[in-house]
Amino acid sequence: MCRSIKTLRPPAMPEEATEADIRAAALQYVRKVSGFRAPAAHNQEVFERAVETIAQATAELLDGLEIRGAGAQRAS
């Protein structure tokens, strides 16, 4: 149905996750949970709203995470 959602935080990603990366992960999550690759017209609005809500929550999570040792790794 959809590929695995990848880790979006350093050091798993060499650079900061983009808005597109975050939205793609949110879309994959909603597809997996709903069981629909593409929703029917009568479910489109709630599907898109879920993607936006999850993308926003993901961005907030990534912004708030403290990655210990990240500075030390970059200095090497």
From TrEMBL:
This is DUF2277 domain-containing protein. InterPro entries: DUF2277. It comes from the Bacteria. It comes from Streptomyces caelestis. Pfam families: DUF2277.
